TrEMBL record:
The keyword tRNA processing does not apply. One of its GO terms (molecular function) is kinase activity. This is PTS galactosamine/N-acetylgalactosamine transporter subunit IIA. The keyword ATP-binding does not apply. PANTHER family: PTS PERMEASE-RELATED-RELATED, PTS SYSTEM MANNOSE-SPECIFIC EIIAB COMPONENT-RELATED. Residues 1-124 form the PTS EIIA type-4 domain. It is found in: Cytoplasm.
Amino acid sequence: MIGIVVSGHINFASGMESAVRAIAGEQQQMTYVDFVETMSTDELELALRQAAADVDSGDGVLFLTDIPGGSPANRALAILMDTPNIELIGGANLPMIANAAFERDDADLTELVDTLLDIGMSCMKDMRRELNSMMAQPTEFECEDGL
């Protein structure tokens, strides 16, 4: 099973952990690393390296971080550069993280990255535009009882 490490600024990771647990239940080989104010970036990288080692069963590890170019993404990128079978998605959102729990059993690491990117992009919606589109479509109502 692909290991997952979620990381982000302040309580991003722990917030995602509680949301994923509510949606997908407790997950094996999935861990969360918050980058809090008291932590240096070197400490963050050590925590990320340990987290990756903890969840890696040989099928690879996927880092999901909050902001591309932020410290969690940059430190995960350093790990990707010197560790085999590691991938990283920066800018992860809750649909991506929750679906990672469901999709990782039936995919290899590259396929999982592609699937999660598709999910993440497709889940972003301009809700006013969506509403206007639905309201513009004619609706036919059928009543079986003739009313």
